[in-house]
Amino acid sequence: MSPATINPNEAAHFGALAADWWDPRGSSAMLHKLNPVRLAYIRQQIDAHWHIDTRERRPLAGRSAIDVGCGAGLLAEPLARLGAKVTGVDAAPENIAAAREHATGQGLAIDYHAGELAALPAASFDLVTSMEVVEHVADPAAFIAELAARLAPGGLMILSTPNRTALSKLLLVEAAERIGAVPRGTHDWDQFLKPGELTELMEGAGLQVIDRTGLSPSPAKGFKLGGSEALNYLVAARHAG
Question: What residues does each domain of the chain span?
Fold first, then answer.
C-alpha cells in the first residue's frame, strides 16, 4: 500500500469551492489569472522537451497527460485541446463532479477520478502536471514519489508551488486572505516548499530538474514568468539518467 497523501481537511476546503471553480470572478479568480501564465510555461517546456515547432497547434497529439490535483479542470481542458489524452485526479469528489460536467459541456473527453493517485489503475503518462498541490498534501515525499512512478520513460513533469519566504507569508497568506483574493484557509505557509527542498524531494524520487523559473506579479498582466521566485515558482523535470 502506498502512503496516503490526501489531507482530508484540504480536500474538504477545496471541495466546498467546486461550484464556483469556473467563475473567473469567483473564489478561484486567482487561479484564472495564474492559468495562462502556467500554460505558457508548460507549452515552452513541451516544445523544448519533444523538439516541437512552436507553431504546432496540437503539440501533445498522440501523447498522454495526467493533471494531479486537477480541481474542476482548469488545466486538464487546455491540455486536451493541445491534443493530449488527458486524465485528471483530485482529492475532492465535488471537484471531479464539476470537472466532468464542464468537460461534457465543452465536448472534451477527459478521464476524471476522485481519490488517491496511487489508487488509479496502473498507467504511466508522457506529461505529468501538478499545480499548487504539493503544499497541500499530507506526505510531500510520498506524493512526489507517486508522481515520479506515473511518469513514462522520456516523459516530462511540471510542478508549481509557492515558495516559503517572508514575502509569500505576507502577500499570499496574510494579505491575500484578508482582502478576499483567495478564500480563508487556502494556504498553510509552514507547508510551502523552498526550491531546494522540492528539488531534493524530486531527486530522491529519481527525477532530474531541468528547468525552474519564477512566477511573479506583473502590474500589466497580473502575473508573468521569470523574475523573482520569492512568491511562486515552476519546475520542469524528467527521469534522471
Answer: 8-239
What radius of gyration do the chain's Cα atoms show?
17
CA distance 85 to 72: 17
CB 127 within 8 A of CB 46: yes
Angle at 132 between CA 170 and CA 52, to 5 degrees: 125
pLDDT band, residue 84 (cuts 50/70/90):
very high
User: How distant is the alpha carbon of residue 52 from its chain centre?
Assistant: 22
pTM of the prediction?
Answer: 0.88
User: Distances in Å between the alpha carbon of 205 and those of 15, 116, 162, 201, 208?
Assistant: 29, 18, 20, 6, 9
Whether the predicted pLDDT of 181 surpasses 70: no
Query: Does residue 192 have a pLDDT over 80?
Result: yes
Lowest mean pLDDT among 12-16, 44-48, 166-170: 12-16
CATH of 8-239, one of 3.40.50.150, 3.90.550.10, 3.30.530.20, 3.40.50.300: 3.40.50.150
Q: Indicate the SS3 state at residue 217.
A: strand
Query: Cell numbers of 71, please?
Result: 480541481
∠ CA 181-185-186, nearest 5°, is: 60
The predicted structure's pLDDT at residue 78:
96
Q: Of 158, 136, 195, 143, nearest to 39 (Cα)?
A: 158
